[in-house]
Structure formats: C-alpha cells, structure tokens
Amino acid sequence: MSALFNFQSLLLVILLTICTCTYVRAVAPRLIDRNKEGFLGLFWMSARIERLSPYVALACIAMAITILVQ
C-alpha cells in the first residue's frame, strides 16, 4: 500500500525525511542550505524542524514501538 493512503506509513516517511535532512545538513550544510525556495525548500524546512528535537525524538520512539508491536 502506498504511504499516501496509510497514515502510519506517511508518518514514518515524514519522520525519516526530517532525520535524513538533519543528518545531511550536519555533514554537508551547503547541499541543504542552497535550496531554500521551491520544492527542494521542503528539505531545508525539514532540516529546521529538528530544532524541535524532543518532539521528533518522541515521535520516532513512538513509531518504533508501534512497528515492533505489530
């Protein structure tokens, strides 16, 4: 099933995008920071969401538990 139609998969894709963009920005900041507008600006915004890291961390832990329980 596509991630667009399954809420749990959609949430997983969003969390993985946030974590991946934050990691890429830490390793190669120029790669993320040069695209602040347009469609690729979504990745720049995703890297900025990591500032709310306690909430992202709790969401990642909750998602891991739900996947392990299934």
Structural summary, described in words:
The chain crosses the membrane at residues 52-69. It is a single-pass type I membrane protein. Residues 1-26 form the signal peptide. This protein has 70 residues and is an all-alpha fold. The chain has helices at 7-27, 29-33, 41-49, 53-69. Helix 1 (7-27) crosses helix 3 (41-49). The longest helix is centred in the N-terminal third of the chain and has 21 residues, at 7-27. The radius of gyration is 13 Å and the shape is globular. The two termini are 16 Å apart. The mean pLDDT is 82.
Mean pLDDT: 82
Oligomer: single chain
What is the overall shape? globular
Largest sheet: none
How many helical elements?
Answer: 4
Helix percent reads over 70%
Into which percentage range does the β-strand content fall? under 5%
List segments where confidence is low: pLDDT < 50 over at least 5 consecutive residues: none
Radius of gyration from the alpha-carbon trace, in angstroms: 13 Å
Please give the number of β-strands: 0
**Order of secondary-structure elements:** HHHH
Distance between the termini: 16 Å
User: How does the helix and strand content classify structurally?
Assistant: mainly alpha
Membrane topology: Single-pass type I membrane protein
Protein name: Protein kish
InterPro entries: KISH_domain (IPR051523), Ksh1 (IPR009653)
Pfam families: DUF1242
